[in-house]
From TrEMBL:
Name by which UniProt lists this protein: DUF3160 domain-containing protein
Region annotated Disordered, chain positions: 24-44
Organism this protein belongs to: Peptoniphilus lacrimalis 315-B
Ranges annotated as biased composition (Polar residues): 24-34
One Pfam family from the record: DUF3160
Length: 720
């Protein structure tokens, strides 16, 4: 509630005068700053900006009729489409008879929908997977974020940096007090460095002609540090700084403008001005934060840019828990609003009040380091908050739990298979405090309010992973009633989680510790009947569409793609209901499932590049490659034998093909569909997507060991 109040007050402070229904801002002739009457505080036009939508819930009477598979698989009607005149490997028979499915990991597709298109060409039946649907949402989320960043946010932040530099120059010139002067100097170097990032050079521009030689040299050296990607001393703070954070990763490698956007955001988020140094208030850092906040408050254009960018990111990702201009505006308004002399900011009594208040903030990510101010501090995603509690931060020797694993996050949200793997993990067992910490956290997660995941897109995206744990009883298809299916679902959820970490790598504050000729066979398709997942996806799609449309962030082509995606998802719900209730799919439904690869491809292209007419026409080949990676934390000194300084990486690999046997219309069929793959490993350096893809192509990485019980390479493992 306190955070909401702070954000609301700040919004009111700078936006009340923009509404037709609000009183006009009154300009103080002496300071030029905006003054707002107290009675206007209830009239902000931006209250309740997140719109909720209805959720659908189908009441399904599960009565699926299973048919036993014969030992020789001869009663699988369309088997010859897969093994015509070829011996069926014993391991394939074993898995079909035991589990009703298997995954062939001998190769991977660039995109999941390609499997369906290959099936169409080879006259194979489609098994439509939840993986292919949730992956489409990842494609939408990542590409929508990319377009907003490149087309909207970067131009806005260029203007923002230029104006902030102008004000920083003025502050530096007017500062007489030594502490204020030093604080103004740090701000000036920071925004001057921003100009170098924007210009991608070390030449003075029209924006920084007034910067003196000393500041110019310090900023140019800072920019050189950024380009070095090494650990060096910061020219802004004078402290050690890990510049490898500026290595461009995620979708930001796709264009020069995105690279600039990435590094400019890193500049704003990774320059952390800590409120305390060794338990002593850092007056200069508090003053510097007030100077930057003052300059945003006094300029309506800057205020609007800042809230447009940060407010949108709060919805797309999450809010930050660290101090930003949003928080500091409250203090500036309270103590210094009518002060025109910046030297009066060095008021020790007032600064102590501010520092003490900031020190009380509940910090869940790297809280042991204390609170800090940043221009645009990184966000605090829910899973990062949980993960912080699952590592031993050390302090009294090497960490006994230096990293967290994806299975821990999945266990927290109710995945029973993940829970078993956590309990059996030999490394995790080394930390004697872990069982109690984990159980307390699990209890906390289980008791979250019902609408917790409906606050923003990150939480909605994350909530899809919960739905991979759904079960439908002993009258559901056989392939859904075994431990290997649960493991497959866990791997799929982890792959989606890795994609989410990739999509938000710039904004998430990391956890810290110290067609052709075919066969004459009947094609009978089947939809993976995880109805609850499709229902959750329906909510998320409508929630996303409603709120992005409200913010004018979707064009007509994207809206049409959204409608097509929503329609496809509703169609899969209806198919799933028919299957579980043992009803017959219509010929029209079966035909639509046969050509679903092309339908998914069209939705994919609409999200990635609406100007392309086909998948292969995408100009950037990386847009056709689904494999993505994200570093989620750095390895501290530890008792596990992990190399200190390495990076914990999680990756979504290429989709593998899953073969599933199902009963439909009184017969058995085999269908093929794509499943997501997940990789978790340590790397000496932070990896970008291209480097990760190279490792996959060179077979340097392995999927999680628990997948070996259902996933295998029929060529390498069987000599087939």
């Amino acid at each position: 509630m306190k955070k909401l109040l702070v954000s609301f007050l700040f919004i009111v402070l700078i936006f009340s005068g923009c509404s037709k229904n609000n009183k006009q801002m009154q300009k103080d002739s002496a300071t030029g700053e905006s003054q707002i009457a107290e009675e206007n505080m209830e009239e902000s036009p931006l209250k309740n900006t997140v719109k909720d939508v209805d959720e659908i819930h189908r009441d399904v009477k599960v009565n699926y009729e299973n048919i036993d598979v014969k030992e020789d698989l001869s009663n699988i009607t369309n088997l010859k489409a897969y093994y015509d005149e070829m011996a069926i490997p014993d391991k394939v028979k074993e898995h079909i008879l035991k589990d009703g499915f298997y995954v062939d990991n001998s190769y991977g597709s660039e995109e999941p929908f390609q499997t369906y298109e290959y099936n169409e060409y080879l006259s194979m039946s489609n098994f439509v997977t939840t993986d292919s649907m949730v992956h489409l949402y990842h494609v939408f989320y990542d590409n929508t974020l990319r377009k907003i960043e490149e087309n909207k946010f970067l131009p806005m932040l260029k203007s923002f940096n230029s104006k902030m530099l102008e004000y920083a120059i003025k502050d530096y010139e007017e500062a007489k007090d030594d502490t204020v002067k030093e604080a103004a100097k740090k701000n000036l170097i920071l925004f001057e460095t921003g100009e170098f990032i924007i210009g991608d050079n070390l030449i003075k521009s029209d924006n920084n002609l007034r910067v003196d030689e000393e500041i110019f040299n310090l900023a140019s050296n800072e920019y050189k540090n950024i380009r070095s990607e090494k650990s060096l001393v910061s020219n802004i703070s004078g402290e050690d700084f890990d510049y490898s954070q500026f290595k461009v990763r995620g979708h930001y490698t796709k264009s020069e403008n995105l690279k600039k956007y990435f590094q400019l955001n890193m500049l704003y988020s990774q320059n952390k001005f800590y409120i305390k140094d060794e338990n002593q208030l850092n007056y200069g850092n508090i003053i510097g934060s007030l100077l930057a906040t003052k300059n945003i408050l006094k300029d309506e254009e800057l205020s609007k840019i800042y809230l447009d960018v940060v407010g949108t990111l709060d919805f797309l990702v999450e809010e930050s828990e660290k101090a930003s201009p949003v928080k500091m505006a409250i203090y500036y308004k309270k103590y210094f609003d009518k002060t025109s002399d910046i030297n009066k900011l060095n008021d020790k009594k007032v600064l102590e009040k501010i520092g003490e208040d900031l020190d009380k903030d509940k910090l869940e990510i790297a809280g042991f380091k204390g609170n800090y101010f940043a221009i645009i501090p990184q966000k605090a995603p829910i899973d990062n908050k949980w993960a912080q509690k699952l590592v031993d931060v050390g302090g009294n020797g090497p960490s006994q739990k230096p990293i967290y694993k994806g299975i821990e996050i999945m266990a927290l949200i109710g995945n029973g298979t993940a829970q078993k793997l956590v309990e059996e993990d030999k490394d995790i067992k080394k930390w004697d405090k872990y069982p109690k910490i984990f159980q307390n956290l699990k209890d906390e997660v289980e008791n979250l309010p019902e609408n917790f995941y409906n606050k923003n897109l990150y939480r909605g995206y994350f909530s899809l992973m919960k739905e991979f744990s759904n079960t439908y009883g002993n009258k559901s298809p056989k392939f859904m009633q075994n431990e290997n299916w649960n493991k497959k679902n866990l791997s799929s959820a982890l792959g989606l989680w890795a994609a989410l970490k990739h999509d938000t790598i710039l904004y998430s504050e990391v956890v810290s510790a110290e067609m052709g000729g075919g066969y004459d066979v009947e094609i009978c398709n089947f939809v993976e009947p995880n109805i609850k997942l499709y229902e959750r996806l329906d909510y998320l799609l409508n929630f996303t569409k409603e709120n992005l449309t409200d913010r004018n962030l979707l064009d007509d082509k994207q809206l049409k793609a959204f409608d097509n995606f929503i329609d496809l998802n509703k169609f899969l719900i209806e198919c799933s209901v028919s299957e579980l209730e043992n009803s017959t799919l219509s010929k029209e439904a079966n035909d639509r499932l046969t050509y679903i690869g092309g339908e998914m491809e069209n939705i994919f292209i609409s999200f990635v590049d609406p100007n392309a007419k086909a998948f292969w026409e995408l100009e950037d080949s990386s847009q056709r490659d689904m494999a993505v990676v994200a570093d989620i934390m750095q390895v501290p000194a530890n008792t596990w034998g992990l190399k200190e300084g390495d990076f914990q990486e999680v990756g979504l690999g290429y989709s593998n093909d899953m073969y599933v046997v199902y009963a439909l219309n009184g017969k058995l069929y085999m269908g093929r569909g794509p499943v997501l793959t997940y990789y978790e490993f340590q790397s000496e350096n932070r990896l970008n997507d291209d480097e990760f893809r190279g490792k996959l192509r060179n077979n340097e990485l392995k999927q999680e060991a628990f997948t070996n019980t259902y996933s295998f390479n029929i060529y390498n493992d069987l000599g087939y």
